[in-house]
Predict the 3D structure of the following.
Amino acid sequence: MDISIIVPLYNEAESLPKLYEWIARVMKENKFSYEVIFVNDGSNDNSWEVITGLQAQNTDKNASVRGICFRRNYGKSAALYCGFKAAQGDVVITMDADLQDSPDEIPELYRMITEDGFDLVSGWKQKRYDNALTKNLPSKLFNATARKVTGIQLHDMNCGLKAYRKDVVKNIEVFSEMHRYIPYLAKNAGFTKIGEKVVQHRKREFGTSKFGINRFVNGYLDLMTLWFLNKFGKQPMHFFGLVGSLMFFIGFIAVLVVGGMKLYALSHGVQAMLVGVNPYFHIAILMMILGCMLFLAGFLAELVIRNSPSRNDYLIKEEI
């Protein structure tokens, strides 16, 4: 099979027939064998009935319509995870169900994967039709930060329209709300040939956006989580032990300084503040305690990692 198209959705019943018709037309024109996997993320409209209807109506021997229905709303990351797990095509395309992503982009995305040799190609909605204040500006700031932290020079890392080599989706795990950082997950897994394509962004025809402004706050927190896991996920002691030892050392030196100043004052007959009421003494003791706690946190994390069944999971490119 040439292409698997994964469409995560939540309450998009109105747009699904038009989207599928558009996809089918593009696939037929380019003579692709394909499957469309609709992942219904707990919709409370009749999205699932529409999907089952599309599956029943399909008569194309080169195409299949598949559906996955969650019992409740889990989020886009969960939908993509299940879609990736079910995909069978050599190239996997993800796109949103709201008709803002154009299926006409699929042939060129497929070519960039199969001919240009990219592992992953991300869309870039250079011209957007979203609200400039609530979406465009925060998106630019978010992507600038993501480029700095990840080292991946993409203008729109969170674009829903992406193409993947099959190996990529089978070797990464999308969890929590990490769908925003799939290129970073792919890079951390060793798939470093990541490209970008300017794609058309269309105005929403039906319904309303399912994402609020809080996604940008969550996005920064998730980015820091991924950065930390990539940097210290296998060796947490390298972070906690270093920071804890540094804090303990600084606190210990500060205690010596405070004690030395007290002894110096006593030896010269000068009245000095009691060590017990000196605020610097308490700050120094606090740093020593925090340093010990961080060191122990690193030690416990190492014990957890040592007993983890995935401690020796390494991605093998090929064997001969």
